[in-house]
Amino acid sequence: MRGARKGCWANCASYILALLLLATPVLAVQPDEMLADPVLEARARAISREIRCPVCQGETIDDSNAPISRDLRLIIRERLVAGDSDEEVVDYVVDRYGEGVLFKPRPEGANLILWLAGPVLLLAGIAVAIAAGRRRTAPDAVLSAEDEARLEEILKK
């Protein structure tokens, strides 16, 4: 009976290990897309992590299996092979698809409002909290002459 239990645990452990191996993230980059030059391929991967899939919206083009993501990955690699810098490649993609494809929008133009809104609202919230805290302090109590006399009488006792 003990040997059977030991075998069961070994089987369970191997199933759990297999499931964990299957749960690792799988990139959508196909082998035929990869560049032979490892430096250019590393640059392409870095750029691909900054570009959002126009179809999926929540995934990078590196993670997406959408056909447009494949096209974008190929365009990025073509531009790198042509000698473009990383910034030129990103500019090309943004010119073609708009600012919405960037996971981290540039802090310029209308996006500047979004970049500054968070810190401004935080500072405004702190100012409101400080002002509300100052208003809550108890005002100085003014006692009438009768109340003062009574208080002095109580304190003497």
Mean pLDDT: 79
- First CA to last CA: what distance? 87 Å
| Largest β sheet strand count, sense and barrel closure | none
- CATH level-two architecture of the domain at 28-101: Orthogonal Bundle
- Rg, rounded, reads 32 Å
User: Considering the protein shown, what is the CATH homologous superfamily of the domain at 28-101?
Assistant: Cytochrome C biogenesis protein
Shape: elongated
Would you spell out the secondary-structure blueprint of this structure?
Blueprint: H1 2-22, H2 38-48, H3 67-81, H4 86-97, H5 111-135, H6 145-156
Key phrases:
157 residues; 6 helices; 0% strand; single chain; Helicase, Ruva Protein, domain 3; mainly alpha
Word description of this protein:
The chain has 157 residues and is an all-alpha fold. The protein has a domain at 28-101: Cytochrome C biogenesis protein (Helicase, Ruva Protein, domain 3). Helix content is 61%, strand content 0%. Helix 2 (38-48) crosses helix 3.
How would you concisely characterize the structure shown here?
The chain is mainly alpha-helical and 157 residues long. It has six helices and no strands. It has helices at residues 2-22, 38-48, 67-81, 86-97, 111-135, 145-156.
